[in-house]
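Customer escalation, tier 2.

The customer says the design service returned an amino acid string that "doesn't look like it belongs to this structure." They asked us to rerun it and document both sides in this ticket. The original structure tokens are below, unchanged.
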């Protein structure tokens, strides 16, 4: 029997450099490699292991599939005063997001609200790094995207939706922003993959097998279909994401993304919708009052012992940063 592998401790800078070098070694341009390594490092830092260093394997697999252009240079197009589109040219999404963000923020501050469509991108990461980046500029952020059709609609047995995450960030004057990022599936696909790799069972509400029956076998789940969270409510939100971040922006739905992959095993190829809102522009002289209302809401949540979303992640971040 093989001896268990020893744990290896890396600093955040070492982790970033490892991810960057691995990507460059596999033909990814320096600009893409750095954008991807930044988000992978953030995931590992916040103990989001299914979106941390583990995602490096999927990135390399996507490049090897021949589907991704690892050296694509995103281009930005103004659509209207409040809308822009970034064409990723079949590269990874993160560099496209970074390329379009300054123009999105500028439009939001001018118009009050602005939308950015990222088209023809391969997406593998969590969305919270993106909306947190928007919130760091004092803007409210909202992002969503489809993926592959791994998720059955409520009452169905076959995949139609992607995991279809929705992320939101509200900037706060002190401390971390109010952030949530959740899949409209019962769990992220990566969590089931990790359970399968480790031979661990999954809760029966996460997925169904090929026969449409609830399963605790992670591998059977990967061969079957995932479930939406909250039954018909999660199913409706998943459909909304398909419409807003697929049909509305002229990009692939999750079923089309799955067909485009054609068994290559790459990250999902589709679009992403990002919205930025400027509270200062909306509220004007009432901005302080609006922020005070938000803080009263947050206080009412935590004062009764409840936790704000992302609190565990922020606590993990603090632990990491003080080691």
């Amino acid at each position: 029997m093989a001896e268990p592998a020893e744990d290896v401790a890396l600093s955040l800078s070492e982790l970033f450099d490892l991810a960057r070098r691995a990507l460059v070694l596999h033909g990814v341009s320096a600009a893409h490699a750095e954008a991807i390594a930044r988000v992978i490092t953030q995931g590992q830092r916040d103990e989001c292991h299914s979106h941390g260093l583990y995602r490096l394997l999927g990135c390399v697999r996507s490049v090897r599939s021949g589907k991704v252009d690892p050296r694509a240079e995103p281009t930005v197009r103004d659509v209207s005063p409040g809308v822009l589109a970034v064409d990723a040219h079949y590269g990874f999404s993160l560099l496209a997001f970074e390329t379009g963000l300054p123009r999105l923020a500028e439009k939001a501050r001018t118009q009050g609200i602005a939308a950015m469509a990222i088209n023809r991108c391969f997406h593998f990461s969590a969305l919270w790094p993106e909306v947190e980046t928007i919130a760091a500029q004092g803007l409210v952020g909202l992002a969503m995207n489809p993926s592959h059709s791994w998720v059955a609609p409520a009452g169905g047995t076959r995949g139609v939706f992607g995991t279809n995450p929705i992320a939101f960030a509200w900037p706060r004057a002190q401390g971390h922003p109010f952030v949530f990022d959740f899949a409209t599936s019962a769990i992220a696909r990566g969590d089931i993959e990790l359970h399968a790799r480790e031979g661990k069972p999954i809760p029966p509400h996460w997925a169904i097998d090929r026969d449409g029956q609830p399963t605790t076998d992670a591998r059977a789940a990967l061969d079957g279909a995932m479930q939406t969270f909250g039954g018909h409510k999660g199913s409706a939100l998943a459909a909304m994401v398909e419409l807003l971040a697929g049909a509305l922006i002229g990009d692939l739905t999750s079923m089309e993304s799955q067909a485009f992959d054609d068994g290559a095993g790459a990250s999902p190829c589709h679009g992403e919708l990002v919205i930025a809102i400027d509270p200062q522009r909306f509220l004007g002289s009432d901005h302080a009052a609006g922020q005070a209302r938000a803080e009263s809401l947050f206080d009412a949540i935590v004062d009764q012992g409840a936790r704000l979303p992302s609190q565990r992640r922020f606590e993990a971040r603090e632990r990491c940063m003080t080691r």
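Tier 2 assessment: The sequence is consistent with the input. Residues 145 and 272 are 5 Å apart (CA to CA). The longest strand covers residues 83-92. Sent an explanation to the customer and offered a walkthrough call.
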